[in-house]
Amino acid sequence: MIRAYRFLLRPTARQAVALGEMLRDHCSLYNGALQERRDAYQHTSKTTVRYGDQSAQLKGIRAFDPERQGRWSFSSQQATLRRLDKAFQGFFRRVKAGLTPGYPRFKGVGHFDTVVFPKDGDGCRWDSTPYDNVTRVRLQGIGHIRVHRHRPVQGRVKTISVKREGRRWYAVLSCDDVPAEELPLTGAVVGIDMGVTHFLTTSGGEHIANPRFLDAMAEELAEAQRHLATFPKRTLQRTKKHRAAARKVAELHAKIRRQRADFHHKTARALIADHDVIAHEQLNTAGTVKAPAPKNEPEQPGSFLPNGAAAKAGLNRSILDAGWAQFLTILANKAESAGRLVVAVNARNTSRTCPSCGHVAKENRVSQAKFECAACRFAANADHVGATNVLNRAGLVLCDVAWPRP
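Given the sequence above, the corresponding C-alpha cells read:
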C-alpha cells in the first residue's frame, strides 16, 4: 500500500529563515517559468514552451544565480517546474471539456508553501536510524533538521515534501510497500447516515454529535477578521501589524482544521475497530453545497425573486464545517490498512424510504428528526431510518463480494 506520513519539524531560528528562503526561491522559479510560457505564446507566434525545454535551462539558471538558485536541490527545482506543467495540463483539459479553464496564476510568496523532493537521497535524506533518539531530515542548503516523529515510518520512503502552515513546518513522506495491519474479525456490519444535526447516525441507533468546530470559534475568528479588515487591502508594503493580523486569522483556521481532522481520525478508527463492513451514502458534497440559481423577476427586469440563498449559505457552512468528504476519505484509508470493507451506496431517497414496508414518499419525512411512513405508520428517528436503508442497500452490493476475507 501507499501511505503518507506527516511530521512536525523543529528547525532552529537560522534554519527557519533558510526554509523561508527556499520557498521564496522556488516561488521565483515557478513565476519565472510561468512568465516565459506567457511571453512565448503572446509574442512569438503562439509558440508552446514545455517542461523539457524549461528543465534544460535549469543548469544555466543555477550557474547565473548561484546564491538564490544554485544552492537548492536540482531535483526539487525540476519538481517545481513539473508543478507548473501539471497546472497547464489541467488548464487545457478543462478547455477541451468546456469547463471553466482557470489559467495558471502567479504565486505570491505567502501562497507558495510546498517544496517537493522527488526521491529520498537526492537533495533530501530521511534519517531512518535516529541518533540519540532524535530523528532528523537533511535538506540540501539547510542541513539536518530535527523531526518530531510521533509514530514509526513503515515501507520505503519515495518522496519527501517540506510544507509550511503558518509558522509551523512539516515533512510529508510518501511511502510505498507499507504492510497492512489487519484487525481481527468482529462479525459486525453497520450503515451510517451523515448529517449536520448529528455528525453521523449508525444503523444501530447510535448518534455521534457534530462538534461544530467553526461555530465554536466563530466569535474569535470574526474578531480577528474584523481587525484584519481595518488595514488597506492593497498596500505597497505590508506592515508588521498587518502581517500579525493576517497570521492570527490563518492560525485560527489552522486550529479549526486540526481539530476537525483529529475528530475524523478518532471517529473513523472507532468504526473500523468495531465493524467488519461499513456502508455509507455516496455523497456529492460539491453539488450539495452549490448555491441556488438566481430567479429573475419577470415584471421588473434586473430584479430577482427570493431564492433562499441566505438560508442555503448557512446550511452550506454547516456541511463544510462537518467535513463529510474528508471523513469518508480517512475512513476508506483506515479500512484498507485494517482489512475492513467500506461500501458506498446510492443516496437517493434513503431518508424517504420506509424500512418496514418499502414505501417511498416525500411525506414520510415529517421533519428533520422524525420519520413516519404514510402507508404503514412506521415511526422512528429519521437519521436512524436513513442509516438502516443504507445498510439494506449495501446488502445487495455485498452479494457480489467475497466476505469475510479468506
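Confidence is low (pLDDT under 50) at residues 402-406. Try to locate this feature in the C-alpha cell string yourself.
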